[in-house]
Amino acid sequence: MSVRDTTIDLRLLSSARKEFLEKGFLKAELKTICNNAGVTTGAVYKRYKGKQELFCAVVADAIQRFNSFVFKRTSIDFSSLSDEEIKSTWAMNEEYVLEMFKMIWDIKEDFVLLLDKSAGTIYENYRHDFANDISQAYMQYYNEIKRRGMTEVEISEAEMHVLCSSFWTSIYEPFIHNMSWKEIEKHCKVLCKFYDWEKAVGLK
Predict the structure, then answer these.
(1) Residue 8's pLDDT band (boundaries 50, 70, 90)?
(2) What distance, in Å, lies between the first and last C-alpha atoms of the chain?
(3) pLDDT for residue 1
(4) For 144-182, b where at least 16 C-beta lie within 10 A, e where not — what string?
(5) What is the tens place of the pLDDT at every residue in 89-141?
(6) 3-26 burial by CB neighbour count: b if 16+ within 10 A, else e?
(7) Alpha carbon separation from 11 to 35, 117, 187 (Å, rounded)
(8) Cβ neighbours of residue 164 under 8 Å, at least 6 residues apart?
(9) In degrees rounded to 5, what are phi and psi of residue 153?
(10) Has this prediction a pTM greater than 0.85?
(11) pLDDT, tens digit, for every residue of 52-68?
(12) d(Cα 200, Cα 47) in Å, to the nearest integer?
């Protein structure tokens, strides 16, 4: 009985990631991916249905991490939180924001693939879809402070989506522009000064 060579999977994913980053999904060539991985196209089709499924395999871990990130922010039991705890979630805490950057830094190549190289895949609208999901989470927090009488500012779902898209674009761009970690740390300080969510949502 033959033993599956698992090193092929690692070589394929590494080669595919490199090719997708350099050319984007649409222009990436399966033949080049195979040649650089030292495998045949037959080896690819034994594992994946085609180029798109291979792309999905490359970004699978990043997708799981971001799904978990969104889930934690949308599955909140507000009854267990005090007014002060709710209020603190709107504060632009530099340490907390830097943690978000660290999470992305660990998977930065796959993050860039999702945001900038995924045209032609099921993830080509990932930037918009993620902003939509995260804006729903922000909207939950906003509705809670409104219910508690902690704000009189009216914010529609459409406006919250625009605000979240603007904020998260400021999170995305350092990776698209290949900033160093030192540059990101500096950017984080500016970001926390620039965005004042407490004022935006009118926290009392």
Answers:
(1) confident
(2) 70
(3) 41
(4) bbbeeebbeeebeeeebbebbbebbeebbebbeeebeee
(5) 999 999 999 999 999 999 999 999 999 999 999 999 999 999 999 999 999 99
(6) eeeeebbebbbebbbbbbbeebbe
(7) 10, 20, 34
(8) 131, 134, 135, 138
(9) -75, 135
(10) yes
(11) 999 999 999 999 999 99
(12) 49
Q: How far is residue 57's CA from residue 69's CA, in Å, rounded to a whole number?
A: 19
Quote the tokens at residue 55: 């792309």
Q: Are 196 and 91 in contact (CB under 8 A)?
A: no
Nearest to 57 by CA among 133, 121, 104: 121
Whether residue 41 contacts residue 31, with contact meaning beta carbons closer than 8 Å, is answered with: yes
Q: Which residue has the tokens 């895949």?
A: 121
Q: 3-class secondary structure for the chain?
A: CCCCCCHHHHHHHHHHHHHHHHHHHHHCCHHHHHHHHCCCHHHHHHHCCCHHHHHHHHHHHHHHHHHHHHHHHHCCCHHHCCHHHHHHCCCCCHHHHHHHHHHHHCCHHHHHHHHHCCCCCCCCCHHHHHHHHHHHHHHHHHHHHHHCCCCCCCCCHHHHHHHHHHHHHHHHHHHHCCCCHHHHHHHHHHHHHHCCHHHHCCCC
